[in-house]
Amino acid sequence: MSVIERIQGEVQSHPIVLFMKGTPQFPMCGFSSRTVQALKAAGAKGFHSVNVLEDPEIRASLPRFSNWPTFPQLFINGELIGGCDITLELHDSGELARMVADAQGD
């Protein structure tokens, strides 16, 4: 299985996927930390995360897959939402909570 197929599998297997540096419990960069906080504040319960620092292939290939150069990268229902700034804007507007509720079937 290619790394692109692995990424596609992650994105399709979980309603909410965050490709981040570190883990939700131990984020390894401020952007990843703020994105996790916004997701939790928006009501995301058990979102799936992928630590790109532990998988150099995914870290190298994800920007080509998503056409997004930086981390973290948030996918909801298989669609790239964006990085930290976009996630925080969506949270501030209340839109992130709606997207999370839809993805979780709340």
From TrEMBL:
<feature type="binding site">
    <location>
        <position position="21"/>
    </location>
    <ligand>
        <name>glutathione</name>
    </ligand>
</feature>
<dbReference type="Pfam" id="PF00462">
    <property type="entry name" value="Glutaredoxin"/>
</dbReference>
<keyword id="KW-0411">Iron-sulfur</keyword>
<comment type="similarity">
    <text>Belongs to the glutaredoxin family. Monothiol subfamily.</text>
</comment>
<feature type="binding site">
    <location>
        <position position="59"/>
    </location>
    <ligand>
        <name>glutathione</name>
    </ligand>
</feature>
<keyword id="KW-0001">2Fe-2S</keyword>
<feature type="domain" description="Glutaredoxin">
    <location>
        <begin position="16"/>
        <end position="81"/>
    </location>
</feature>
<dbReference type="InterPro" id="IPR002109">
    <property type="entry name" value="Glutaredoxin"/>
</dbReference>
<dbReference type="InterPro" id="IPR033658">
    <property type="entry name" value="GRX_PICOT-like"/>
</dbReference>
<keyword id="KW-0676">Redox-active center</keyword>
<dbReference type="GO" id="GO:0015036">
    <property type="term" value="F:disulfide oxidoreductase activity"/>
</dbReference>
<dbReference type="InterPro" id="IPR036249">
    <property type="entry name" value="Thioredoxin-like_sf"/>
</dbReference>
<dbReference type="GO" id="GO:0046872">
    <property type="term" value="F:metal ion binding"/>
</dbReference>
<feature type="binding site">
    <location>
        <position position="71"/>
    </location>
    <ligand>
        <name>glutathione</name>
    </ligand>
</feature>
<keyword id="KW-0479">Metal-binding</keyword>
<feature type="binding site">
    <location>
        <position position="29"/>
    </location>
    <ligand>
        <name>[2Fe-2S] cluster</name>
    </ligand>
</feature>
<protein>
    <recommendedName>
        <fullName>Glutaredoxin</fullName>
    </recommendedName>
</protein>
<feature type="binding site">
    <location>
        <begin position="84"/>
        <end position="85"/>
    </location>
    <ligand>
        <name>glutathione</name>
    </ligand>
</feature>
<dbReference type="InterPro" id="IPR004480">
    <property type="entry name" value="Monothiol_GRX-rel"/>
</dbReference>
<keyword id="KW-0408">Iron</keyword>
<dbReference type="InterPro" id="IPR014434">
    <property type="entry name" value="Monothiol_GRX"/>
</dbReference>
<dbReference type="GO" id="GO:0051537">
    <property type="term" value="F:2 iron, 2 sulfur cluster binding"/>
</dbReference>
